[in-house]
Write a structure and sequence with these properties.
Elements lengths: L2 H13 L6 H6 L11 H25 L6 E5 L5 H9 L8 E6 L2 H14 L4 E5 L2 H4 L11 E8 L2 H11 L4 E7 L3 H8 L1 H7 L9 H22 L2 E7 L10 E7 L4 H16 L14
Parallel strand pairs: 1-2, 1-4, 2-3, 4-5
Antiparallel strand pairs: 5-7, 6-7
Helix pairs in contact: 3-4, 8-10, 10-11
Amino acid sequence: MSKARLTGVQALAAELRPGQSIELLQALHILTRDGKLNQDSRRKLKQVYHLYQFIEKILVELAASDRPVTLADHGAGKSYLGFILYDLFFKGRLAGHIYGIEAREELVAKSRALASALGFERMSFIASSVAEATDSNTLPAQIDVVTALHACDTATDDAIQFGRQKRAKFMVLVPCCQAEVSRKLNLDKARSLSRTPLAELWRHPIHTREVGSQLTNVLRCLYLEASGYQVTVTELVGWEHSLKNELIIARYVGDSGKSHAAKERLGALLAEFGLESLLETRFTLT
């Protein structure tokens, strides 16, 4: 091997996780056919690897119980995250299963074909919306880990409901394109302006979008806490890589005084912003 080619291989190896399948990364078009990373692929891979670091700790903890770990990835798209999780963690173990849930049937078909070609036998792909998957009989009654990477708008909320119903021990969420709360703030803007000076925060359309996005994730975190989860919020990667950068990690700890207090704060915050109707639809606690 020439010195230049050796240097290129060494540089690539330094960017990949140990044991990472080159064949998989080429099939996902993260690597080119000649084994190179372009700038866009490097950014995408960095995001997935960074998220993997958080999820790996969760999987190691769950695997210590010697019980097969189940993971459902919502809004899976081309299943970058699911395939890399399987390749780096599940492949080296005798048990455990990943379920990729994606509404676009053509992407599900491609993921099934790739899993078959790579011999990733404990991966299943389901053509379904997140909401429909909650009641699907093709999934087990309990799922240990629920992930949703850039699931758009209310799909993140549907993933939370899925996790609650499946008694998930962990949820790992990177929300995207929150619009529902912004729409509701905009509909009732005139009454809100007469009711509270806080409405100035969303009087202008650009502020409505920004405040709605921020408020959505705050409400989600309170909802998770009210549902018995301990919540950590951090950034996924540097803002130069992605503006959809908020990472929410929820660990189930059970109902407590903290969950009761979170329920009260959730109701108070919804009332303050004139969003009480969401208690009956999006943030139900029954």
